[in-house]
Amino acid sequence: MFLPFSSAPLGTVNIDHKNTVFNCPKGEYISQISGNYDQKIRGLRVKCSGGSTSPTFGGASGTAYTDTSVDGYIGFGMARAKDSSFDSNFNSIPPEINAIQFKRANATLANTFGSAGGITRPEFKCPYGTLSGVSLGSNSTDISSLSLICDGPTSTVSNQNTVVGQLQVEYDIAKQQIYDQKLTIPPPLSQKALDIVAANTTTTRKPPAQQQQTTQQQPAEKPVSIWLWVGVGFLVLIFIILMIVIIVIATKPKPDTD
């Protein structure tokens, strides 16, 4: 899985609506949603983990809503929408977002904002901690289309095209699954990914190849000079000559004195 990617849009961009994309600054994620609703979602505004906020998309009529998730969101727990269509007289029925329910990163659900109208769409999830933007169609009164953008902190911690980066994403997904299933023991994938990512991002120990290279670079012993061997040989030769002289003198017959 590679980031960024987006969810399939809820609804469709109405002909008189403007399509707008908002992304949190790189490395941040959406930490709060707010807006207004009645029988449909009238307005939407998001706040990023660094404190910046988007403009209010849509209108301000209806009941105000706000939900905050310090750890961010992982997507829609539930969403209901109507696409553009036609009535029996072939009059255009504009699309609308009837209800949204965000799922927090800790697996709890925000309240459902909106009404019971529309068609329930499949749940959508980003990898843990990566929900960082929205793409939506809106005008000054309401919203006709909404899509979530996944591209948060994990995509800036490491390069997703590397093995370590892919394992980081796999770990985030596994952590999300832990929250969803309310498990206390992580699955093998998450532990494996955690170990490898930690070994490649936090340790100061040199990798084996570098350690081996360091060992090979240790200075080798200097070879013995040839002149030293010549000197030793000369001394040995002198010693042998002296020994021969001593033996000759010692074995020389003494003159007869009688």
Describe what you observe in this structure:
This protein is α+β, with helices and mostly antiparallel strands and 258 residues long. The protein has helices at residues 154-157, 163-181, 188-201, 208-216, 226-251, and strands spanning 5-6, 10-11, 18-23, 30-37, 41-48, 57-58, 63-68, 73-82, 85-86, 92-93, 96-104, 113-114, 119-121, 124-125, 131-138, 143-150. The model is unreliable at 154-166, 182-189 and 202-215 (pLDDT under 50). It has two domains: 5-153, Jacalin-like lectin domain (Vitelline Membrane Outer Layer Protein I, subunit A); 158-202, no CATH class. It contains five helices and 16 strands. Helix 2 crosses helix 3 (188-201). The strands form four sheets. Strands 1, 2, 3, 15 and 16 form a five-stranded antiparallel beta sheet that branches.
Strand content: 25-35%
CATH level 1 class label of the largest domain: Mainly Beta
**Going by CATH, what is the homologous superfamily of the largest domain?**
Jacalin-like lectin domain
Write the CATH architecture name of the largest domain: Aligned Prism
* Named CATH topology of the largest domain: Vitelline Membrane Outer Layer Protein I, subunit A
- What is the number of strand segments? 16
Sheet having the most strands: 5 strands, antiparallel
Number of helices: 5
Order of helices and strands: EEEEEEEEEEEEEEEEHHHHH
User: Helix share of residues?
Assistant: 25-40%
Shape estimate: rod-shaped
